[in-house]
Specification:
alpha+beta; 2 domains; Trna Endonuclease, Chain: A, domain 1; about 25% strand; elongated; two-stranded antiparallel ribbon; 7 helices; single chain
């Protein structure tokens, strides 16, 4: 097997992981889902050691992809309040990354925070603000700006807009942005909703 074959498609990557034992076929009594076709098999991570490799290595892959991507357009959109461009840029990044089938809110939360974490911004994640814990706070002190993000996940792409609205209401009701109003010239509040490789960003 050559590297060209490995990189030719995402399916080849998962095949290699299966053939090398990093994924194994689940026993019938381990399967919690009904597979739609007989040609499909349910694969599992075989043990805790390999699970740790997945958690660290795959996260590193995502971080490297994010760092190699030119984020200037996204950052400019965020600090100028352009939610449409921010949505477009985030969708481009999501499409570039390999599939991550564990689509959960905490994964997207960490993924989004990581985009800003190594870009000379001050990033706070899951810290107490107002009357709760805000998802992500990004500060740009030199510009007198702070951005408050609340992240949601939906299993229905038609509800992306609704989930953004829910996120924005949560920012208001729990007063996540209030403590920054005196210290910063501009406080930007964003609701972000994810569905697999798609997202929508709305500004208050």
């Amino acid at each position: 097997m050559t590297y060209d074959y490995l990189h030719a498609s995402e399916d080849n990557l998962w095949s290699v992981l299966y053939l090398t034992g990093y994924l194994t076929k689940a026993l019938f009594d381990q399967a919690e889902v009904v597979l739609p076709e007989k040609t499909e098999s349910l694969l599992i991570i075989p043990n805790a050691e390999i699970r740790e490799i997945f958690e660290t290595t795959i996260k590193k892959w995502f971080d490297e992809i994010a760092r190699s991507w030119d984020r200037k357009t996204l950052f400019h959109a965020i600090w100028s309040g352009d939610s449409e461009t921010a949505t477009s840029e985030m969708n481009k990044l999501l499409r570039k990354t390999i599939s991550y089938h564990d689509y959960k809110e905490d994964f997207y939360h960490a993924f989004f925070a990581g985009i800003f974490a190594d870009a000379a911004y001050s990033v706070e994640s899951n810290k107490e603000h107002g009357e709760g814990r805000s998802d992500v706070i990004v500060c740009a002190p030199e510009n007198g700006q702070v951005a408050v993000f609340e992240v949601k996940y939906t299993d229905n792409p038609q509800k992306l807009s609704d989930e953004c609205d829910v996120a924005l209401r949560q920012i208001d009701e729990r007063m996540y942005a209030k403590e920054f109003e005196d210290a910063y010239d501009q406080v930007l509040c964003y609701g972000i909703a994810f569905f697999k490789k798609r997202c929508m960003i709305k500004k208050k």
